[in-house]
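Researcher: Re-running this chain for the archive, since the previous output was lost when a drive failed. Same request as before.
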Amino acid sequence: MTTHDLVVIGGGPGGYVAAIRAAQHGLNVAVVEKEPQLGGTCLRVGCIPSKALLESSHRLEEARHGLAEHGVVAEGVSFDLGTMMRRKETVVGTLAKGIDALLAKNKITRHRGIGRLAGPGVVVITAADGSMTSLQAREVILAVGSRSIVLPGVDVDGRYVGTSTEALAYDAVPGHLVVIGGGYIGLELGTVWRRLGSQVTVLEYADRILAGIDGEIAAEALVLLRKQGLDIRLGAKVTRARADGTSAIVECEGMEPIRCDRVLAATGRRPATEGLGLDTVGIVPDARGFIAVDGQFRTSAPGVRAIGDCIPGPMLAHKAEEDGVACADAIAGKWSHVDYDLVPAVVFTHPEIAAVGRTEEQLVAAGIAFRKGVFPFRANGRARTLGETTGKVKLLADQASDRVLGIHIIGPAAGDLIGEAAAAMAFGATAEDIARVCHAHPTLPEAVKEAALAVSGAAIHS
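Model: Regenerated structure tokens:
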């Protein structure tokens, strides 16, 4: 039986990062992953391929509708879906090879197959041909990620009714795409196919889109996305979705059935902890499949830790990476910590939406007195030169201490701007602290500075 100091089950963002960090601490590390490519759902069929398609489709949209105001004449613009998809796969493949190189550089052993616990300190790997290998480990990290949730009545067949995995690889543009769910995944992929020519209908059960995003920002996003052509229907309870010949039918409570070409079920994700052998070490996940851990990611079983999507918290790749680093540090006896209150969130629609910290609704519910500063991108010089004046920066600060409690952005490069916000909040910045930092001109980050000034009614340009 091969022995390692640490065996990581799962080669996604949390797993491979944990492995690298542990190897940096001098541990003998192995990673077990069933897929040919490392990187997990995020790299293979999630964050990266979706952003590649968002970028390609956005460039098409710009060429068709956004260049004329710049004096650029582009006539007869078309696209090649096959080339677009091949570019996406090249991006994914290049990054996956990079992870392979990182594991080799750090002398980490890669085991291919399905890993599961088989008692204390033992991991059994089942290869594609059915052969089995056992590993002995002083520590095991469970980093198995998550899988799509499919609602009862939604009959996924992988052709006409599918999840985000299928929606990232359609071989033709659907005439009519129905998206079940108005969250990040549904809106991003709905946007991709709308730009490429689909009629897109989004069915959201709640009375708003983007649960968890600040309500004011989400309401503005709803208006903008509808203007872009997404048919977003709120309060829509889907009761059935199924293939019907060479199309699909979606049934909603109180609505006429919708016949469409494809259905994308985008109703959230759940931990992929089934079949992991948790019972062999006495771990009992909760009803949703999450594994409870302490501050150092230790489960109830000695020598077994868990990170990423299989433990409570935001199901985001960057959160899993932070878990991976902190968990490896803890195993090595180092100080470790992840501030889950400061995990940024980004929606890569156009304009982008990004947030870190608490929403206005959360502050009101908690009875925390706050002040709000808002600055519109239409008053930002760089946004004007880009022709991207939609949206705003919203900053929430404690009324007594002025400490920043949340920053919410809808507008150009929001996903990049939120990095400054997260860094400032991590160091306990006040609104005045951000306002007093000299920002280069003309740049988009000036909007963050102006929102900080607006908290005390001192914005210069609005």
